[in-house]
Amino acid sequence: MTKAPVNVTVTGAAGQIGYALLFRVASGQLLGPDTPVRLRLLEIPQAVKAAEGTAMELDDCAFPLLAGIDITDDANKAFAGTNIGLLVGARPRGPGMERGDLLEANGGIFKPQGEAINAGAAEDVRVLVVGNPANTNALIAQAHAPDVPASRFTAMTRLDHNRAQTQLAQKLGVGVSDIKKLTIWGNHSATQYPDIFHAEVNGKNAAESVNDQQWLADQFIPTVAKRGAAIIEARGASSAASAANAAIDHVYTWVNGTADGDWTSMGIPSDGSYGVPEGIISSFPVTCSGGEYQIVQGLEINDFSRQRIDASVAELVEERDTVRKLDLV
Ligand SMILES: NC(=O)c1ccc[n+]([C@@H]2O[C@H](COP(=O)([O-])OP(=O)(O)OC[C@H]3O[C@@H](n4cnc5c(N)ncnc54)[C@H](O)[C@@H]3O)[C@@H](O)[C@H]2O)c1
Ligand SMILES: O=C(O)C[C@H](O)C(=O)O
Q1: Helix orientation angle between 227-235 and 158-172, rounded to the nearest 10 degrees
Q2: Is 245 among the annotated ligand-binding positions?
Q3: Is the CB of 90 under 6 A from ligand 1?
Q4: What gap in Å lies between CA 311 and CA 192, rounded to an integer?
Q5: The Lactate/malate dehydrogenase N-terminal domain covers which part of the protein (predicted)?
Q6: Domains in the chain, please, with CATH?
Q7: Any known ligand binding at 7?
Q8: Would you tell me how many other CB atoms lie within 10 Å of the CB of residue 108?
Q9: Would you give the distance in Å from CA 225 to the centre of its chain?
C-alpha cells in the first residue's frame, strides 16, 4: 500500500445491505484497486456483536486493501475523519406506522449522524444515504451539517437507474451497456419517474426505438417504481445485494466520473434546475468528473415527463414540510 487509506464509514453495518456491501468495499470495488480503505462500522449497541462477527469475516478474507476496521455504537467516533459516509442503517416502517412517524423515527438517527459528520468528518467528506426514506433522511443529515457543503449529501437512486436500464435493455433485446442517458427524477419511492425520452440505445433515441407509449406508461414506469415492493414480496425481505451494488456504483461514479457521452442519476440538493424547489434532495441526471457532479442542463421536458416529475417532487416537498414541522430541518 502506498496511498494513505480512505476512511469509509458504514452505518447499519450488521444489516442485510451492510453484509452485501462491506466485502465489496474492502476488496476495492468502491474506490478502485489502488486505494486502501479503513472501515468504520456504526451500529446500535444490540447489533455491535453481529458487526464484530462481520469484521471477523472481513479479516478472514485477507483483503490487501483493507487497512483496518473499527466498530462502534458512537456516531462521533464512527464519523471522525471519515472521507466517505455510507448511511445505510435506518428505522424500517413498522405495523401501523404512518409516513410522518417514519420520518420522525429516522430524524432520531439522521440528525445526530449529520451533527457527527459536521463535527468531525474529513474536509472532503462525501455522503450517500441509502436508508429509507433516503432523500429526506439525506436532507435531515445535511441540515445538521452546516459546515459541510450541502452538495456532499446525496441520496441513492442508482438502484432505480440500474433497474430501469435492465428493463429497457430487455424490452429492446440489447445489452445493458448499449443503453445510455437514462434518468431517474424525484424521490426514491413509488412516485419516482424513470425517463427514457433522452436515453439512447446504441446512439438512437430510446423512446423512439421503443415506440410503445402504452408499455412505457403501464409497464416500464410502474415496474421500475415498484420494483422494491416486488422484491420484498418475492424474497420476504427488501433488496440487499442489488442495493449494495448500487451504493458501490454511486460512489465509484461520483469519485471516478461518468463515461463520456453518458450520465447517471443521483439524489442531490436541488439548485432549482428543472423547476425543482431549491434545497430538496431530488434525483437528477448528472455527469461526474474530478469528484464533483453537475446536473445535466438544457433537456427538453415534454408534458408527459413534466407531470410525473412534478408529482414526485410534490411528494418530496411534502416530506420536507413534515420534517420541518418536526423541527428536523
Ligand atoms: N435507496 C435505496 O435504493 C434502498 C434500497 C434498498 C433498501 N434501502 C433501505 O436501506 C435500509 C437498510 O436496509 P437493510 O436491508 O440493510 O436493513 P436491515 O434492517 O437488515 O439493517 C439495518 C441495520 O441498521 C442498523 N441501525 C438502525 N439504527 C441505526 C443507527 N442509529 N445507527 C447505526 N445503525 C443503525 C440496525 O441495527 C440494522 O443492523 C432500509 O431503510 C431500506 O429500506 C434503500
Ligand atoms: O426497502 C424498501 O422499501 C425498498 C427499497 O427501497 C428498494 O427500492 O428496493
Answers
A1: 90
A2: no
A3: yes
A4: 8
A5: 7-146
A6: 6-155 (3.40.50.720), 157-322 (3.90.110.10)
A7: no
A8: 11
A9: 15
